[in-house]
Design brief:
The complex is a heterodimer of chains A (285) and B (228). Chain A has 285 residues and is an alpha+beta fold. Helices cover 16% and strands 27% of the residues of chain A. In chain A, strands 9-16-13-14-11-10-17 form a seven-stranded mixed β-barrel. Chain A has a four-stranded antiparallel beta sheet with strand order 1-8-3-6, covered by helices on one side. Classes of the chains: A alpha+beta (285), B alpha+beta (228).
Chain lengths: 285, 228
């Protein structure tokens, strides 16, 4: 859900940026490190404490054998990412180490993790403390204005609906999860409503449902759909969207594809610089 | 008849675009979508992730950073991929169908598996046996995969037995269930919520995450249901 957090903490640890990470909702697990490890947290802030001491996001931490990581409070955001040096040992499927809950495949267990699960990872004793610069941390908010580009059916919105879409805020309902966020707000209307045959949709596609309310497709979205595609959240803003939860509110701002690409390139450039700098670090013992 | 030259291209966010050939379930539109997929499979560009077919459209997923870096002349990666897609669409002369052999899918139709057969009969005004006979009598085209891993959208179902989705979807449709929705038919590869009218069930594995071939069905395939 928050690929920026996942990739950035992986780079901080010296991992390939697409190394598998653990994504946690609150309440989050108590984790014991049964061997020397180095870990990093990113994304939501669940008030992490490590052997009693507060430990912040966006930095690497050395965890000696037997140490305990706990999360005591949901301060901000909805999904916290935990990465370990060398990554978790997971059997890939179709080129991925992710878990797909619907298919019951992937990840260490083919299901959500449960108390008692033991995850394997490579031991590490690197004492370097790497901190992630501010520019790489997404501008999270509970009430963000998300940048979007128009979708296939954006032009079919009535003039009034287009104004509503771009000026009002919409609330995430309780029906919001990894598959999609159901929004509640002023109803939107389409001219010449017609049945659409199924076509591809993607993470960030905003569809207009028959009840005139929208849904934002998220990380576990179904791959195809037949509802009108109003707009798509730009890739640079997906991490911000990925931290939203019920009762958060969103607004939308229309930008061009070109501007969206510029925003994305900005993040990639910053991450590439960070990666280069990180690679120059030698492990400290 | 859709004009062979007509299509529209629009962004699907900043990392994908869709080439839309029409808005209907028709073999000709689907063939154009598949042809464009094949074009990109044989003419990949740096930054291409995947070209995916749907009923009447093809969506091209790409890395906008890589594409922009390598296509200096264009204002955006979208413009560059658009240009390649236009070339791909015009490059295809005659549409040729590659897969002509028919895949047989065994189907059980009984009280336990044909959950909505009675509804289909009432809706069509035919007997259960007539509905089954008409359903089994057709060779179906696989138009696309979507919705769930291994879910093949197939068509077209005979008008005489076509029926709309259930008003209230089932919370759990058994794995392997064969469903009908409008003129589409499909098989649920795993247990899932769903609103299609269930006419039977197959034991055939529709999705194998670790298999050599994860899905036995591909767009363009022809399928016949055979009573198990």
């Amino acid at each position: 859900m928050d690929a920026a957090a996942a990739r950035t903490i992986n780079v901080a640890l010296g991992n390939d940026e697409n190394t598998a990470v653990m994504e946690m909702h609150f309440p989050a697990p108590e984790i014991e490190f049964t061997d020397d490890t180095v870990f990093a947290l990113g994304g939501a802030d669940f008030d992490a404490t490590f052997d009693g001491r507060a430990v912040g996001n966006w930095q690497t931490n050395f965890a000696p054998k037997g140490s305990l990581l706990k999360f005591s409070q949901k301060n901000s955001g909805n999904r916290a990412c935990l990465a370990v040096s060398g990554g978790f040992t997971v059997e890939p499927w179709l080129g991925s180490r992710s878990t797909n809950l619907a298919a019951g495949v992937g990840g260490p267990a083919g299901r959500a993790l449960a108390a008692g699960d033991v995850l394997k990872c490579a031991p590490s004793s690197d004492l370097n403390k790497i901190a992630i610069g501010r520019s790489l941390i997404p501008r999270y908010s509970r009430f963000p204005t998300l940048r979007v580009v128009p979708g296939g059916e954006f032009d079919l919105l009535t003039a009034l609906s287009e104004r509503i879409f771009l000026n009002e805020m919409f609330t995430l309902t309780a029906d919001s999860n990894r598959m999609g966020f159901r929004l509640r707000g002023e109803p939107l209307h389409i001219l010449h409503a017609k049945e659409l045959v199924s076509a591809a949709v993607t993470f960030g596609t905003i569809q207009l449902l028959p009840d005139d309310q929208m849904v934002i497709l998220m990380a576990d979205h179904q791959t195809s759909g037949g509802y009108p595609r109003i707009a798509n959240i730009v890739s640079a803003d997906l991490p911000i969207a990925g931290q939203l939860g019920p009762n958060d509110r969103v607004g939308f701002k229309l930008i061009t594809v070109r501007e969206a690409e510029v925003a994305r390139r900005g993040f990639e450039r910053d991450l590439a610089f960070f990666k280069t700098g990180r690679q120059l670090q030698k492990p400290a013992r | 008849m859709p004009s062979p030259d007509k299509y529209r291209i629009f962004p699907l966010g900043d990392s994908a675009l869709t080439v839309e050939f029409g808005n209907d379930v028709m073999p000709e539109l689907n063939r154009r979508a598949l042809d464009l997929v094949h074009y990109f499979q044989h003419n990949p560009f740096e930054g291409l992730i995947e070209a995916v077919p749907a009923y009447a459209s093809t969506t091209v997923f790409y890395d906008p950073v890589i594409v922009k870096r390598l296509s200096g002349g264009f204002e955006s990666a979208f413009d560059a991929v658009c240009h390649l897609a236009e070339r791909g669409v015009s490059d295809v002369g005659k549409t040729t169908e590659r897969n002509t052999h028919v895949i047989q899918i065994p189907i059980t139709i009984d009280d336990e598996s044909a959950l909505d057969l009675d509804f289909l009969s009432r809706f069509s005004g035919l007997t259960n046996e007539e509905v089954v006979s008409i359903f089994l009598g057709r060779i179906y085209r696989v138009y696309m995969l979507g919705f769930l891993p291994g879910f093949a959208y197939m068509g077209e179902v005979d008008e005489r037995i076509a029926a709309p989705r259930k008003k209230t979807p089932r919370l759990k449709v058994p794995k392997g269930s064969v469903g009908v929705a409008g003129k589409q038919t499909g098989i649920y590869p795993l247990e899932s919520p769903g609103g299609w009218q269930i006419i039977g069930r197959t034991e055939m594995q529709m999705f194998d995450a670790f298999g050599e071939i994860p899905c036995p069905l591909k767009p363009g395939n022809k399928v016949k249901f055979v009573r198990a």
